């Protein structure tokens, strides 16, 4: 032990402890800066810098939109064979008396890849060569609330950080005068799970999503009162900031207060930048028609999609666009023949318009567009008394598609069985989709971590497989 190059076990443990503590402290400093949304470098080179996440709430019926299954037509009206390789509700449902429901409309092949798309979405069908599909994605719960949380936060229980919070935590935002993570809600009501699905969870509060309403006034109280001058408002904010910072300096663990200070300053800057953002008056008539704003059915979601493009154009990092609320969710337990055409009509032209508009402006290469729901649906109806059958929940049958960035256009990964119940091979866990999304944005799931309650948390929890089959 006299060799000066050697250290004792006690010294080694002490140095290691302080080293790990220093890493954690550095992470806290990073989260509590005056500019928590300052731009940070990608972990690896990727073309996509922004993400637009299109979330169809309620459980999209994959066999009605994206999966061609001839056996559903062949067995229409007959009792459904019991599903293999399933547990819980799906296994119980498929063993009960039920009847197979055929697709509500024909599906046809489109594009160079011969991609099957329902006739109810002709506009989206014209863009299929830009899309990559993942079939047979499995979520951890067969009920809406937990499944929504799992899809949008990586955990079926409330309290985890949302995808948008992780992305802005990892990359910051290119526009310091607007929120880095914006949520465009459905005007018909709130999403299942509420603010938790776009929350920061255990991440610093600065990374939570900011909700913009759908309509002519997306931001409430955006303009200052007529009797208040800019100088007067600035003076009030300076005083408030001084008081808050004095309070914060005397205490520890003030992430919420630091975020509040930053939010006041951001709100002040937004008063000069946001009015132009939310004003669609400068958009051409051709652009408005491209998004379906000339049709009362597609106009609400078309406005959301157009707003998403304008936000990405101005450097916002992550935009979540929600469709479906209340009785208008994709939760079609009854009357699939009447309800699914309505859903498709609401989103078809807006989504296709968004993809085409991004591409024409050279923005698709740097924008990852994702379509998802919280689950798929069953090919059968287990309620034999209705003359307007519907489909049940199916945690095994979700279809996700992506476009933009380094997405391999026209690619397909995974396949469901002949009746579209579950993956024909190994199930694809949602964490694989999350790992792929992060990778396409230049983020490494194992580097993008946050120390919470003694454990380094990450979006993919125990880790996911990057689906390289859909990456160019």
**pLDDT average, as an integer?**
87
Number of domains: 1
* Second CATH tier, the architecture: 3-Layer(aba) Sandwich
The level 1 CATH classification is: Alpha Beta
Tally of helical runs:
13
Helix content: 25-40%
User: What is the rounded distance between the termini?
Assistant: 56 Å
Q: How would you describe the shape?
A: globular
Structural class: alpha/beta
The number of E-state strands comes to 17
Cα-atom radius of gyration? 24 Å
Largest sheet: 9 strands, mixed
The residue ranges in which pLDDT falls below 50 over 5 or more consecutive positions are: 12-32
User: How much β-strand is present in the residues?
Assistant: 5-15%
Order of helices and strands: HEHHHEEEHEHHEEHHHHEHEEEEEEEHEE
- CATH topology name: Alkaline Phosphatase, subunit A
Overview of the structural elements:
- This protein has 472 residues and is α/β, with parallel strands linked by helices.
- It has a single domain (47-470), classed as 3-Layer(aba) Sandwich (Alkaline Phosphatase, subunit A), CATH 3.40.720.
- The chain is built from 13 helices and 17 strands.
- The chain has helices at 9-31, 62-65, 70-74, 88-95, 122-125, 144-153, 163-171, 230-249, 255-278, 285-290, 299-313, 336-360, 430-440; strands at residues 50-56, 99-100, 107-110, 115-118, 131-138, 181-184, 210-212, 318-323, 367-372, 376-377, 380-381, 393-394, 398-403, 412-413, 428-429, 450-452, 455-457.
- Strands 1, 5, 6, 7, 8, 9, 13, 14 and 15 form a nine-stranded mixed sheet that branches. The chain has a two-stranded antiparallel ribbon with strand order 2-11.
- Strand 3 (107-110) and strand 4 (115-118) form a beta hairpin.
- Helix 8 (230-249) runs antiparallel to helix 9 (255-278) and helix 11 (299-313) runs parallel beside helix 12 (336-360).
- The protein is globular and about 75 Å long.
